[in-house]
Design a protein that fits this description.
By secondary structure, the chain is an alpha+beta fold. It has five helices and five strands, in the order H-E-E-E-H-H-E-E-H-H. Strands 1-2-3-4-5 form a five-stranded mixed β-sheet, with helices on one face. Strand 2 and strand 3 (48-57) form a beta hairpin. The longest helix has 19 residues, at 113-131. The protein starts with a helix and ends with a helix.
Length: 158
């Protein structure tokens, strides 16, 4: 997998590297807790700030998977906009497949203000529901083992 990555164009950066595993934190919506995250790679060129998330996968990602996974990067884009004011912002997934012959795929999306606004509104509604005690269990093999609400989720009777 590493050899496939090093052979790909994704292993070199156009522009300037601003951060690797860069910690970002800030208020996205007044009254909602700070967002804290780590950006795998943050780069800029003359006109664009690019937020990159590196993923591994058992197979190639569809456009739908890219869209479904993009909300986290949209939230990061809101915070990162303060790093390079006035620049366009793009999000990028680098997906390294864990197949017999690994492949590196690059999925770049321009950040659309309407999508950011929608994601922020969704985050605010979720927080308001949490504050109001609205709770629906959402068990997941991937997330349950480390979730702080695991006991409450299991105890929920409907």
């Amino acid at each position: 997998m590493l050899a496939a990555f090093l052979k790909s164009s994704a292993s070199s950066v156009d522009g300037r590297v601003l951060g690797v595993e860069e910690e970002i934190r800030g208020v996205l919506v007044e009254g909602v807790p700070d967002l804290y995250g780590r950006v795998d790679l943050l780069t800029e060129d003359d006109d664009t700030l690019t937020i990159t998330d590196i993923k591994t996968s058992r197979g190639r990602w569809s456009d739908e998977q890219v869209e479904d996974s993009g909300e986290q990067l949209l939230l990061y884009s809101k915070l990162a906009s303060e790093i390079s004011p006035g620049k366009k912002i793009a999000t990028r997934f680098l997906v390294l497949t864990k197949t017999k012959e690994p492949v590196v795929e690059e999925h770049v999306r321009a950040v659309e203000p309407g999508n950011v606004k929608r994601t922020l509104a969704s985050a605010e509604r979720v927080w308001r529901a949490i504050e109001a005690g609205v709770f629906y269990p959402a068990p997941s093999l991937m997330n349950c083992s480390c979730c702080g609400y695991r006991a409450g989720c299991r105890a929920w009777a409907g």
